Hints:
Elements: E1 2-6, H1 11-22, E2 26-31, E3 50-54, H2 60-70, E4 74-77, H3 84-88, H4 92-111, E5 116-122, E6 133-134, H5 146-164, E7 168-174, E8 176-178, H6 186-196, E9 201-203, E10 210-211, E11 213-215, H7 216-226, E12 232-237, E13 244-245, H8 246-256, E14 264-266, E15 281-282, H9 285-289, H10 298-309
Parallel strand pairs: 1-2, 1-4, 2-3, 4-5, 5-7, 6-15, 7-12, 8-11, 9-14
Antiparallel strand pairs: 10-13
Amino acid sequence: MKVLVAGGAGFIGSHLIDALLKDNNQVVCVDNFFIGTKANIEHLKDNDNFKFYELDLTDIEKLDEVFEKENIEYVFHLAANSDIQASANDPMIEYKNTYSTTACILECMRKHNVKKLFFSSTSAVYGDKTGIKLSEEGIDLKPISYYGAAKLGSEAIINAYTYMNDMSTLIFRFPNVIGPRLTHGVIFDFVKRLKEDPSHLRILGDGKQEKPYLHVYDLVDAIMKFKDVEKGVTLYNAGVDSKSTVTRIAEIVCEKMNLKDIPFEYTGGIGGWKGDVPTFEYDLSKIHNAGWHASMSSDEAVEKTVESVI
Ligand SMILES: NC(=O)c1ccc[n+]([C@@H]2O[C@H](COP(=O)([O-])OP(=O)(O)OC[C@H]3O[C@@H](n4cnc5c(N)ncnc54)[C@H](O)[C@@H]3O)[C@@H](O)[C@H]2O)c1
């Protein structure tokens, strides 16, 4: 099948491309290196089944030309602003890179009669629901970050395009995803800070933020398993049923970097920054009942990730 991966030079997108190529698909990758890197796709440059367009997905005319030329059959939409802290000071980043990328992709799909879509949504659409197990249905969706709002808006417009155009759409709401080629996030930050200055480690919040961390290999495995869905929208929380605290992550990073007795300096407060959801837990019964479980626990995923990025 000929597939388009939007945001394919990013962390998760580049791993998904590896799996799609291994599965004998032809992959067209579109990215503008807003956050993704050339290094993430460097290993693919001589692969005849891989083609890259450096393009802003909100440039709808140029995107339309790609659809016109490539006969795309399936779109995997991974593009977004993944740096939630950055958009806290500049909300329009989310409107452009998270919401408008979705709208432009959908419009090109409609024009070119492409019926299959995968969309990378997020736990951030739920908002702060501490103490409630988050299931896909029956929860009031009230995002507290601009990022979560732009993803929820994307889910809404995807629902409409899916219904109006008889599409088959798979949406996964990811938790925190980690692994090789990370572009951002707590592990990325800790490793970077300790490499620059190993005398201490500054930790945002009180360190008790506790979330599920899913390894990217497990996530890609789930996308590949579920990608062929029926007509309509199929939605799953894709996650792992254990969690890691920020302090535990800091300890693992120090252990793996052979750094002993590093003082942790907490900035204080419950969340890392305004818009950060300090803790959440997914109800994973839907995806478990469909026959998929993550192979690694949250702490195992953290350990394996740190080993791959230090
Ligand atoms: N990593 C996580 O923990 C996590 C959690 C929940 C949801 N997600 C979602 O999964 C997807 C992939 O995340 P990731 O961690 O790989 O992030 P990433 O930033 O590494 O990848 C996103 C890619 O989209 C590209 N992009 C952004 N705006 C673009 C534009 N206007 N035109 C073209 N390309 C553009 C970026 O350059 C980047 O390569 C994102 O949609 C993200 O919101 C990620």
